[in-house]
Every structure is written in structure tokens, then in C-alpha cells.
Write a structure and sequence with these properties.
Blueprint lengths: L3 E8 L9 H23 L4 H13 L20 E7 L5 E7 L5 H11 L4 E3 H10 L13 H8 L9 E6 L5 E7 L20 E3 L4 E7 L1 H7 L1 H11 L4 H14 L4 E7 L4 E2 L7 E6 L5 E4 L2
Parallel strand pairs: 3-4
Antiparallel strand pairs: 1-5, 1-11, 2-3, 2-6, 5-6, 7-8, 8-9, 9-10, 11-12
């Protein structure tokens, strides 16, 4: 049975002329490590859920990416993290939002899905739940990075940082996971598309798995991730056409960004309408690709 995996580390990106070779190499290395972490699960006949978790944890732990360590700051110079996960076989999903101390929010999202009757937990309640289920909590300073703080204080507009993964396992099941630190200078309490099922994350074995990255408010309004799946199910559009059409709706709302999508045949689509998108994939033939622009 075909297995496949795609990941992203955010869209928007630094202009090409500002991206030096050393910095570009660092991002490509981080993407490669996350890709291999997820694919190692699939090669051992592991589940799509385990694969997307492994890939996203790797990205959450890498301070280059805006999720987990390295998350953006809000206007209070604090971090509030969001994440979600979805199982395409059962349509079960879990998410957390506005958490400040959970080292790997994607693991907390999975715990919500598997160990509670809820889909979304937020703030202190989500953190109490994570502690109860023995997930690692860290000091808020763990997420700090000088570059993100400088971006806030220099009033840089950065609303594209998110990480995500979609996977197809040897049993033909799909899964998707998305995690983010939001965007630089967001208001405290702001929640974007990443933890919203159907907006920044969706998986359905009858259609596809999707993880988005971009202007979250536009992704929520266009129900981006579900729109890709709905176009496949009801209009019988192929994956690439459905993904491109869904992203066009975001553009009409003056939003930009991108998405990764994967169907049960192992087809992969990674469209974006921003300057670039950190992305990587291994298709059903085992061919690897890593790209930024």
C-alpha cells in the first residue's frame, strides 16, 4: 500500500533577496528532519496520526518555525499557541488554543481527541488537561527567541507562521495536524484557523487531508480545509484542482498563504499564493522534495 507525507513550515516567507544561503540551508535542514521523522513512522507501518504528530513535534521543537519554541509574540509580549489534529478514518478531531505552557501543543490536541469527549479546549483549562495526562509543561520563557521579540518591537507584520503535516499510511488512512504561534502583534486571546477544524485543518478518508498556513481570519471565513475536501466529494474535483480553487477563495477575501493536501491515492498538492511556502514531501514512490520558493 502506498504511503506518503507532506509538511509545511509556514507561508509568506522572507523575500528571496533577503534569504541568504546559510539561512535557507537551515530551513531546509529543519524541514528535512521533520519529513524524515514522519516518514520513519510510515515506513514501519505506523499510523498516519503517529506520522503527523512526529513531523509536527519536530517543527514545534525547532525555533526557526513559528510553532512551539520560536512562536510569535502577541501585543503583551507573550506567546499563545494553537494546534489541532484530525483522523480521516473516524473524523475524530482534537484541538487546543491560547495555551502558554504546553511544550508540544499538537500532542495536547491529540490527547483532547483521544482522551476526552470534546474537540477544542482553550487556555488554562487546556493546560490543566495536559498536566492531568502527563504532557510536558514548560516555563513560558521556553518559547522565547530574540528574533521573534525583535520582530514585535520593530512592528514587523508576520501573519504566516504555522507548521503542519498530512499523511497517508499503509492501511489507507489519512490524518492532518497543524500547529502555530499565531502572528506577530496579535491581540491577546486571538485564535486563528489552525485549531479550527475545517478551517486550518481537516482529514476525511473519502476525500483528503489538509493543513493550511496563511492569514487565519481569511481561512476561517472561507472554511479553507473543508472546502478542499468538499470539492472532491461533491464536485468530484481532483486534488490539485480542489486545492487551487479553495485557495482562490482566500485570495478573493484578500488573504494569502498556502496549504498542503494529500488524497488516498497518494497524490500531493501544495499550492500557495504568497511569495513562498516552506514545504517538503515524500510521495508514494518515495521521492523526496524540499522547497521554499
Amino acid at each position: 500500500m502506498t504511503v506518503a507525507l507532506a509538511i509545511h513550515g509556514g507561508a509568506g516567507i522572507i523575500p528571496r533577496e533577503d534569504m541568504g544561503k546559510k539561512r535557507q540551508a537551515a530551513y531546509r535542514k529543519g524541514l528535512g528532519l521533520a519529513l524524515e521523522a514522519g516518514y520513519a513512522v510510515l515506513k514501519k507501518n505506523g499510523t498516519a496520526l503517529d506520522a503527523v504528530c512526529a513531523a509536527v513535534v519536530e517543527l514545534e521543537d525547532d525555533p526557526l518555525f513559528n510553532a512551539g519554541r520560536g512562536a510569535c509574540y502577541n501585543t503583551d509580549e507573550q506567546h499563545e499557541l494553537d494546534a489541532s489534529i484530525m483522523d480521516g478514518a473516524t473524523l475524530k478531531a482534537g484541538a487546543v488554543a491560547a495555551v502558554k505552557r504546553i511544550r508540544n501543543p499538537v500532542l495536547a490536541a491529540r490527547a483532547v481527541m483521544e482522551r476526552s469527549r470534546h474537540v477544542l479546549l482553550v487556555g488554562p483549562g487546556a493546560e490543566r488537561f495536559a498536566r492531568k495526562h502527563r504532557l510536558e509543561l514548560v516555563p513560558e520563557s521556553y518559547f522565547d527567541t530574540p528574533s521573534r521579540l525583535a520582530a514585535l518591537r520593530n512592528r514587523l507584520q508576520d501573519h504566516h507562521g504555522t507548521v503542519g503535516a498530512v499523511a497517508l499510511d499503509s492501511n489507507g488512512n489519512l490524518a492532518a495536524a497543524t500547529s502555530t504561534g499565531g502572528y506577530t502583534g496579535k491581540l491577546p486571546g486571538r485564535v486563528g484557523d489552525s485549531p479550527i477544524i475545517g478551517a486550518g485543518n481537516y482529514a476525511d478518508n473519502e476525500a483528503c487531508a489538509v493543513s493550511g498556513t496563511g492569514l487565519g481570519e481569511a481561512f476561517i471565513r472561507s472554511v479553507l480545509a473543508y472546502d478542499v475536501a468538499a470539492r472532491m466529494r461533491y464536485k468530484r474535483e481532483p486534488l490539485a484542482r480542489a486545492a487551487a480553487a479553495a485557495l482562490d477563495k482566500v485570495r478573493l477575501l484578500k488573504g494569502d498563504g498556502g496549504l498542503i493536501a494529500l488524497d488516498r491515492r497518494g497524490n500531493i498538492a501544495m499550492p500557495f499564493n504568497s511569495e513562498g511556502m516552506y514545504r517538503a514531501a515524500i510521495n508514494g514512490r518515495g521521492r523526496r522534495s524540499i522547497a521554499i520558493y
